């Protein structure tokens, strides 16, 4: 299962070239609407499905919900993602992933893992404790960043949004009708509250955490 059809197709073709028989759940139902439970709706009868492969990057929320329903099928599965240390995967792992592997994994190794899963062989997950600790650390960092972003005043968020759009301090002053020195003071306050030392770092935080309503 993949949130990008081309990515999923490329992986399927590669695995089939190594002798694995692949079946992909439909992305939409008969009416063309995104399927909320593609795994439960897909007819697996007639297929000897021994394991599932989930490509985590770009999954829609409906697809993530479908992945969280995998335990109902009693089907072992692994999660293939660009960055395993990203805490976005914690809920999917909690839903029963046998392991998380990076998308940089070699094809032979991926085939070996899928074969082991399909045959019910014990699957080692070296470094799982370290990975879970990294998830916890990153979640804490993200929560702190969100709290700092929430500490900005409406005016400071507005100035940061304009900087994010590529305006200079002078252009922000001209657009908002205030003195350039006032804008510089506001920018300094933004940097202090966000705990960063440059406008570039502040803009990067805005890009990650600003609520959609704050964006121009």
Automatic annotation (TrEMBL):
One of its GO terms (biological process) is regulation of DNA-templated transcription. The keyword Transcription regulation applies. GO terms for molecular function: DNA binding. SMART domains: HTH_LUXR. The keyword Transcription applies. InterPro entries: Sig_transdc_resp-reg_C-effctor, Tscrpt_reg_LuxR_C, WH-like_DNA-bd_sf. Pfam families: GerE. PROSITE patterns: HTH_LUXR_1 (PS00622), HTH_LUXR_2 (PS50043). Keywords: DNA-binding, Transcription, Transcription regulation. Residues 145-210 form the HTH luxR-type domain. This is RNA polymerase sigma factor (Sigma-70 family). It comes from Nocardioides marinisabuli.
């Amino acid at each position: 299962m993949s949130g990008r059809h081309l990515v999923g197709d490329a992986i399927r073709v590669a695995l089939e070239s190594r002798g694995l028989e692949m079946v992909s759940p439909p992305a939409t139902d008969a009416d063309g609407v995104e399927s909320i439970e593609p795994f439960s709706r897909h007819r697996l009868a007639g297929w000897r499905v021994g394991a599932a492969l989930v490509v985590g990057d770009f999954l829609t929320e409906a697809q993530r919900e479908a992945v969280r329903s995998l335990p109902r099928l009693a089907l072992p599965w692994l999660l293939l993602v660009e960055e395993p240390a990203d805490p976005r995967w914690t809920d999917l792992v909690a839903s029963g992933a046998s392991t998380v592997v990076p998308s940089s994994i070699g094809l032979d190794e991926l085939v070996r893992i899928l074969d082991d899963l399909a045959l019910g062989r014990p699957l080692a997950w070296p470094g799982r404790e370290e990975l879970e600790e990294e998830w916890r650390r990153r979640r804490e960092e993200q929560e702190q960043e969100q709290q700092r972003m929430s500490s900005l005043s409406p005016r400071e968020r507005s100035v940061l949004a304009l900087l994010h759009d590529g305006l200079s301090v002078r252009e922000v002053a001209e657009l908002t009708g205030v003195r350039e020195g006032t804008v510089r003071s506001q920018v300094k306050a933004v940097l202090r509250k966000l705990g960063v030392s440059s406008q570039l770092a502040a803009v990067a935080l805005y890009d990650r955490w600003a609520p959609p309503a704050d964006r121009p």
